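Box S2. Input/output pair 1.
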Amino acid sequence: MAALWFPEPPSKPARLLPPLALAYIGDAVYEVAVRQHVIARPNLRPHHLHRESTKFVSAKAQARLLALIEPQLTEQEQDVVRQGRNAKSGTVPKNADVLDYRHATAFESLVGYLYYTGAHDRLRGLILQGFELLERADG
């Protein structure tokens, strides 16, 4: 079993988990990555931290990040993304476009999959590359 942050593995191997379950854990893992990213910057006021975080965690930002890193994905990772994008969650937040939301879910599924398979170096690399590409695109 891959080294996880806590000693409770999922009930099934990552490749057998439903895409929305992968997205559920992926959302939390990605949130930690974003928080560490913004805390690494000089301005640590809570309002500033929150405002900076939203540049990365919104459905629109996650959809953009996925589009930016997608050319780097392996066939297996692309399959996870496709399954996550096609998963029917039943709800869409009122402040998100349906397509952005589905792509954000796909991204979170990928993050969850990489976390649970122990591909942590790959996970970090893709997220850091995504942060850099997003910030470069935003100028």
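Box S3. Input/output pair 2.
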Amino acid sequence: MQRAFIIAGMLTLLFACTKMDEYRDKYMENGSIVYPGKMDSVAAFSGKNRAEIRGLFTSDPKITKYKVFWNSRQDSIEVPVTRTSGVDTAKVIIPDLPEGLMSFEIRTYDAHGNISIPVNTSANVYGDLYQSALINRGIANAEMQDDGSALIKWADAGSDAGTVSMRIKYTDNTGGAHDTLVLSVLTDMTTTLPAFKSGTGIIYQTAYLPNATAIDTFYTAFEAFSVKADVTALYLKNTGPFDRATYDGGRWGTLAAPWVTSANVINHSGYGGYASETWLNAGGFLVMESGWSGTANIVNGKISQTTTLPAGNYIFQVACYTEALDPVYIVAAAGSALPDISGLSGALGYGSFPSSTYVSATVSFKFTLEQEEEVTLGLLATMTSGNQYWRVGSVKLIKN
């Protein structure tokens, strides 16, 4: 019995060897299968409708080329390789890719057509959809400084925003053009633009990388931003303390040019619109008064001056004290004159003094010009309710 088992085992082994010989003869008639060395350290890098594949050849000097496949192996690119005795670098751009996550397969080849095992990698590809979502980095404030520079305070950016830099174009106070690139800092970032031309603004764009290793930078469109500046001295004159044209030797006078005062405001024996409040030791004021000492009521009284302003956003501001019961308005109007109170709705903008009496305040309002035009700025009041008085110590025009 034991001898029979031994004979059966030998027959089984003989049969198996015969099968292996048949497999070898059928599938390995040209020799054993050879796999070239695969590409090492493979990585894919994001780009704008493209990706870059990088890798290393650290072994197998017989490699003559490699192929990168994508789109479920429907598309490919072939790159020849000339090996050296050391480590060689592979690098190829895959162009014309759709936006989204792309997978890649990389195989190497030798001169005999032998193929390596595959290496797979992937990368996000960015395009118009990503570009359309980009906005310029926010500016928290932009304002002229006492030294003549402009200080830009940037809104904080998130760590995942991809903000790389901001490119700023501006004009200095000699008319010179500047094109400045500043690298992005995520928080508490400020930028100083020296010798900035007051009353102008900047245009800027922001550069983004969709991820830290992306090969392409994306840019927003250039956007204009106003630099807040006190442009009073550029466009207005005699802005406080105020100069007088005539004076009664005591308190009252008339305002020097370019201020224009309506006749009904000059109601102190040929004087009015100007007062020297010597007890304040603060120079001359813009003033209207009615009722006191028998002075006449004022209806649509006006104190104004006219200038030409470029397009932009403005703030007109006055420092006032009021003992008035009736409304007092500060106004900006297109053209060479202020409207009556009934026409305020047609003004470029207006504000009003506090409704309380015996109050000091800073009063302002904003207005916008779409183009350069003539503008009249000033004060407007009707004062018919008993004894009333107000004064203004200074006026300012701020371009915002």
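Caption for Box S3: The CA atoms of residues 78 and 138 lie 45 Å apart. DSSP finds three helices and 28 strands in the chain.
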